[in-house]
Specification:
The protein has helices spanning about 5-15, 15-35, 40-45, 50, 55-65, 80-85, 85-100, 115-120, 135-140, 140-150, and strands at about 70, 125-130, 155-160, 170, 180-185, 195, 200-205, 210-215, 215-219. By secondary structure, the chain is an alpha+beta fold. It folds into two domains: about 5-65, no CATH class; about 70-219, Sandwich (Jelly Rolls). A three-stranded antiparallel β-sheet has the order 1-8-5, with no helix packed on it. Strands 2-3 form a two-stranded antiparallel ribbon. The longest helix is centred in the N-terminal third of the chain and has 18 residues, at about 15-35. The structure holds fe (ii) ion.
Length: about 220
């Protein structure tokens, strides 16, 4: 026969380290889920990567030096201005890469972060990904590499290609430790070419910066 467990014993158990870890996960996952205006269905959020990253991301959201909002003003990042100033040069190198067939999907689907994007036609060419510049980038778009090199705060850079009519699914980006900066290079210059961030559309246009965001709910 089981002996009766006293409420004070249960209360003490609930503040042991293993439960504190559980509470931290729960509270931060709820914070991520309810942050902003747009959210996943609760069942999808349960298994989404943003839930597993929630404790780290919640800490970044709460203690970052920049405002805790989905879209930041690019004017607050003047060091990025040379990218826009040189957008035609970047476009020229991007055009050559495209014509040479170098902007591709991952052939082995081993680029976990973007696997679902690849299935919808999204293609990319990495310049740099949290480390040194890729040899292919040094080789094929040297001027853009030099430009990105001159801005040390850029941790990762890539050229992305979305075919006509392609649409990426709603998602939360997994990692809150960096900002995204988008610069349109070859676009239809139409309102049809856009990204929604937390329910608000932002339009890609040639040579225009669209947004600098903290990871949030995007489609
Ligand atoms: Fe994203």
């Amino acid at each position: 026969m089981l002996s009766q467990v006293s409420p004070s014993l249960i209360a003490r158990e609930l503040v042991t380290p293993k439960f504190l870890v559980l509470w931290t996960y729960l509270v931060s996952a709820l914070y991520v889920h309810f942050r902003g205006k747009v959210r996943h269905k609760f069942t999808r959020q349960l298994t989404d990567h943003s839930t597993f990253m929630a404790p780290y991301n919640a800490m970044i959201y709460l203690f970052s030096a920049v405002p805790n909002k989905p879209v930041l003003d690019v004017k607050d990042f003047p060091e990025l201005q040379p990218l826009q100033d040189n957008w035609e040069m970047i476009r020229e190198e991007a055009r050559k890469l495209y014509q040479g067939g170098h902007i591709q999907i991952s052939k082995s689907y081993n680029d976990l972060a973007f696997n679902t994007f690849f299935k919808r036609g999204w293609k990319r060419f990495y310049l740099k990904w949290y480390g040194d510049f890729l040899p292919s980038a040094l080789d094929l778009c040297p001027k853009t590499v030099e430009l990105v090199k001159s801005i040390p705060s850029i941790n990762a850079a890539l050229l992305a290609l979305m075919p006509s009519k392609a649409k990426l699914g709603e998602h939360r980006d997994p990692f809150a430790g960096s900002f995204r900066y988008h610069l349109g290079l070859m676009t239809p210059n139409s309102d049809e070419c856009r990204i929604y961030i937390d329910g608000t559309p932002y339009f890609w246009r040639d040579g225009q910066r669209s947004c600098s965001t903290k990871p949030t709910f995007t489609v």
